[in-house]
Amino acid sequence: MRPSEARRLAALAAFCVASTSTVTSAQSSSAGAALVPEINQIVEADAARLQDIFKDIHQHAELGFRETRTAGIVAAELEALGFEVKTGIGITGVVGVMANGEGPTFAFRTDMDANAVQEATGLPYASTQRVTNLSGVETYVAHMCGHDPHTTWLIGLAKTMPELRGRWSGTLVLIAQPAEEPVKGAKAMRDDGLYETHAVPKPDYFLTFHTAPFSTGMVALTSGRKNTGTDHIAVTFHGSGGHGSSPHHATDPVIMDGMAIVQYQTIVSRMADPTETSVLTVGSVQAGVDNNVIPTEAELKLKLHYTTPELREVMVSGIERISNNIALSYGIEDEAMMPTIFEKGYAPVIFNDAEWMDHIRQVLTEAKAVDETVNERRVVEGVAIDDLQVPGSDDDFLLFEGLEDVKGDYIGVGTAAPEVFAKAHAEGKEFPFFVHEPNYVVDLDAIPWGTRLAAVIALDVLGKPTE
């Protein structure tokens, strides 16, 4: 084990100490902290229902832009609670708006889509769904990234806020976004006129949660950069095809694919600033059908990650140069036969608003909102992992990109059962499982916990000052 990893594990383990304190908010200065007792009461009464909703969504997982059942659940819940509901934004996106007098606009965004993964958790509510995806490939589908608790937290927040309507003022906007996994959903909602055509109020504050495989009760509050940016790019090499026994009569795109796979890595190792994070993954190689036929096309599906817009340009332009030069070196001269490079999806680098994040950290500390000792729940007292940066990406900040004066924050929320996390740590593992793995399990206690957390932050922004 590397020393840096050992130190990180020790720090995480130190956080996992059971709390015996109770939630108190006397003399709280923030509206969110002052309302913790009421929040706890509302969420606790709704916890079993929310857990059932989570299990249902988990069991009926849907891929991006196919989330019709999940979107229907969200829309029905919001309509029943008195929200103005807008559906079909960006194909399957749902937005609920609740205006409650003068004040700021607070947006809470979740994503609804699942992964093309076969679940291996053995849970009684595990997904066994199989579908044909938008590319015509049959695949298993399962929520192995936590979008099912995300959606449930939105529903829980939607239930909590109307019950405290007399305690806050402003506009609450709840966004259930499709297709985060292919990083297409946020762009689809913007292209569909989220703020113009559908008249969704533009946010002053924009908040996103994402599950993380550390203990329930832990939160990652990062000021500044949180996630990398990403691009999904498809590169298709074109050749003439031919008989496998006579490659000299063909121009083989499979060979071009192979050369590109190797040469693309020099973008990271020789073109990118080594002090910045950059990743170039080839996630799919598709070419041909028969053993004895050289195909006419060969496709690579690429996944990029980077920490700055400048680094993105280095990577994207590098892919274009290398691809074209490989084609030229194999005798491709016709412009129409040069590689086709297609941008499939994009998400910007996520930079959290440092001032608001520092305030959130103070509010959650004051509120002890992460302490779930109600009914002796087995959850640790809330702790914050400060300035945790991850190489993953999310397209959520595209939902307000280009808007002025929006404070946006992205928070990692621990959803692994504390005993499961502790066992993994004792075995020398950093995490018990990780997102997109077939054994990713969300602690049921994290369902009410995430709802409480969202409510505290929302009410801190929208809440009326205490006297």
UniProtKB/TrEMBL annotation:
Name its species. Answer: Defluviimonas salinarum
> What is any Pfam family matched here?
Peptidase_M20
PANTHER family recorded: METALLOPEPTIDASE, PUTATIVE (AFU_ORTHOLOGUE AFUA_6G09600)-RELATED, PEPTIDASE M20 FAMILY MEMBER
Tell me which Gene3D superfamilies the record gives.
Answer: 3.30.70.360, Zn peptidases
Q: Which UniProt keywords apply?
A: Hydrolase, Signal
Signal peptide coordinates: 1-26
Protein's UniProt name: Amidohydrolase
The record ties this protein, via InterPro entries, to: Amidohydrolase, Bact_exopeptidase_dim_dom, Peptidase_M20, Peptidase_M20_dimer
Which residues does the UniProt record annotate as the domain Peptidase M20 dimerisation? 232-328
